[in-house]
Amino acid sequence: MQTAEFAPWEDPQQKPLIRFQNVTKRFGEFTAIHDLSLDIFEREFFALLGPSGCGKTTMMRMLGGFETPTEGRIELAGQDIGPVPPNKRATNMMFQSYALFPHLSVWDNIAFGLRRDKKSKEQVAARVEEMLKLTRLEKFSRRKPHQISGGQRQRVALARSLAKAPKLLLLDEPLGALDKKLRQDTQFELMDIQETTGTTFVIVTHDQEEAMTVASRVAVMDEGRLMQVATPARIYETPESVYVADFIGDVNIVHGKATASGKEQYRIDWSDTLPPLTATSAKPFSDGQDCHLAIRPEKVAISTERPEAADNVVQGTVHDIAYLGNLSTYHVALPGGTIIKAQTANTRRISRRHITWEDPVWLSWTATAGVLLAE
Amino acid sequence: MRRFVLISVPYLWLLLLFLIPFIIVLKISLSDTALSIPPYAPALDWAEGIGAFLGQLDFENFVWLTEDDLYWKAYLSSLWIALVSTAFTLLFGYPIAYGMARAPEEWRPTLMMLVILPFWTSFLIRVYAWMGILSNEGFLNQLLLWLGIVDTPLTILNTNTAVYIGIVYTYLPFMILPIYAALDRLDGSLIEAAEDLGCSRLLAFWLVTIPLSRNGIVAGCFLVFIPALGEFVIPSLLGGSGTLMIGKVLWEEFFSNRDWPVASAVAVVLLLILVIPIVLFQRNQQKQAEAEQ
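^ Those are the sequences you sent over. The predicted structure of the assembly is below.
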């Protein structure tokens, strides 16, 4: 252990627990996964994030053994698991619908997998009790799935899939059926359980907030391809493409042409009438190259007077205000029609908002606030 | 008031077409045979009063049913034949229902149609068709002779085997449909979950599919068993002299012996025997409805 931080993906010595090697999956004419390679490490909480139909569920089903790759290889702890049927894999899956056996009690649902392992009655009972305790379900062990709430069912499904102590736990939209409040609580519960058990989790979700909250790394997928694989912070702050920047969180995208104006600094001509913008980028751009500047709204300051000493300043009028309680988002229309979003935290309780609709305002941000993207 | 009218419709129906006829049959079963029209006595005569009329009724015919071993043998034999046919119907019906539930979505309406299709021709014609197939010179024997599997024609018609074939064939849709309905509702991810937790395909079928289609199986079995028990047409057309079924005994008492009171007693006892599975069936349906809530 060189670093206290958990980042096995940065250590070339580490062997991945799961390795996708040039995996392609076709369903008839339709290609669900395009030549995809990916490493997932032990003890990771890995999120597959993307819109529906992006192939994330197919990835998970291939890990579970319910689909086999058309081309390529999937390794689990160095072993090719392509030909291994689901019941012989050291993976367990928590299904989106939970797939609890309606004819069995909570206790028997959790014991179901253990009983297939030729364990003694005492061992099974001990493990089930342990799982019930972990998921705080002791009181409901005798009930049938239809006699408990959605949140409890979710925990039964988790307990059942964890009972066999799998090397890898697959979670298919595990919180999709829960309401928002319960979902947030459960996210932290999931993280705690993952930490306590030390199991590697792979979660599939279309909810970016959920992926950002729980995951150590996030893979953003689109149309069967990986768009970017990185930690939540990197995905958010340094997206590699407009797609990723746009998919995760709220963002302003300004389209223009880059011209070098200093060391790692570029001038962006984006409007015929408005002055050019300044942005830094470690990635080189050639003069006149098409580029997109992605700026998060919270990095854009809004003021009624022209700020001094800002790298980028534009003037506009307030078009819309979205008050979210903790935050306010201002939609500011620039001359020429472009809308730029600026967000401020409502740190003070006073309701005297001095900016209102149709007010002329100044927007400003630093040269480092935005990310310059080629595509 | 409107609610009362709505509720009263089915009760009136039952009263007129079930309860009153049943009371008439019960009354006949407690009477004696007589050379008259109708062929039993006493008839209700208001002049003599209800008391005198009831005084003439007795359980003589029911006692007779226990004295002649024909009757209890016929009941037992009917129960046995109904039980065996139900088992065979389940044996054939389950795989068919399972295949239908697993078939591609767009095929299912067609398959369902094929199961129901035989109902479009008369039941009697279909049973007669089986006579043509099963007789000594029938299609089946011709085929077997032609294939060289047998040297002499098999005697199937007019045996219990033919009765079993007839009942299984006739009641198969009643078995398939409830089982199909249960399997169709089954969530496919449950089977995947069972496999994921270490079950082989076969074990997953045994531990998940069978228990979850239990209500369909029970419903199908009752729907076959109940009518098969009182079956008359199939044993009389396909069965032989050795086939003893209560439906046939009933018919003979009525039409050959013209002993209406004994025939009625046989019918009353048959109804009492059927009440047990019908009550069990109702309880199964009720439990199923509760489980689905």
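The domain at 8-244 of chain A is CATH 3.40.50.300 (Rossmann fold). The helical segments of chain A are 56-64, 106-115, 121-134, 150-162, 180-197, 208-214, 232-237, 242-247.

Shout if you want it in another format.
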